[in-house]
Amino acid sequence: MAGVPLHLPTIAPMSDGPQRVLTEHGELTLEQIADLLPGTGEIMQSVGNAWWKCAYAARGGNWELAAYFARRVRGLQRKLSIVRPKYSGDLAAFEAEHVAAVLAACERKDRGAFDRSFDLAVDAANALHAKWGKSYIRWTLPAEPPRDLELSEG
Ligand code: HEM
To answer: Which residues line ligand 1 (CB under 6 A)?
Structure first.
C-alpha cells in the first residue's frame, strides 16, 4: 500500500554495545528478546495439555489425533532443547525411548501397547522432574477427558 509507513524491525549495527532491534515501540536487545521466549514452565504446561489429550484420543479410538498430540509433545520438547540446552540430553533420550514407543503404538492402533508405553513415559517424565530438583511436579492424567475435540474414531 503506497504511502503507508511500514514499521519493520531493524537491527542496529554491532559496533556500540549489544545488538538492538528497533521496533515501532522502542528498542530491545537480542538478550531481552531471548529472555522473552517461552521457558520450561510455559513449554511444559503445553506438553502436559497435549499429553492429556493424547491419552484420551487413544482411549476414544481416534488414533490419528493421539499420534498428532504425541508429535506435538515431541515438537515442544525439541523447542525446549533449543531454549534450554541443559535439558537436551534428557529430552533426546525421552523422545527416543518413550515418545517413539507411544507413537508406534498409535500407528499400530494398539491400545495395550499404548497404555503400557504411556504409563512408562509418565514415570520417566516424573523421574526427570525429580532429577532436576522438582520432585513435587508429578504429572498425573486428569480424570476428565477434554471436551473441545471429537475423541472417537472418525
Ligand atoms: C510427557 C512428558 C511430560 C509431561 C506430561 C510433563 C509435564 C510437566 C508439567 C505439567 C510441568 C509443570 C508446568 C508448569 O509450570 O505449569 C512440568 C515441569 C517441568 N518439566 Fe516436565 N513433563 C514431561 C516431560 C519432561 C521431560 C522429558 C523433562 C526433561 C528434562 C521435563 C522437565 C521438566 C522441568 C525441568 C520442569 C520444571 C519447570 C521449570 O523449571 O520452570 N519434563 N512438566
So the answer is: 40-41, 44-45, 47-48, 51, 73, 87, 90-91, 94, 121, 125, 128-129, 132, 134, 137, 139
Q: Which is the closest atom of ligand 1 to the Cα of 124? A: 27
Q: Kindly state the percentage of the chain with pLDDT values over 90.
A: 88
- Whether the pTM exceeds 0.90: the reply is yes
| Nearest C-alpha neighbor of 72 from the set 60, 55, 85, 97 | 55
Domains, the chain: 40-131 (1.20.120)
Quick one: which of 17, 55, 20 has its CA closest to 141? Answer: 55
Q: Which three cell numbers stand for residue 18?
A: 549489544
Please tell me the predicted confidence (pLDDT) of residue 1: 47
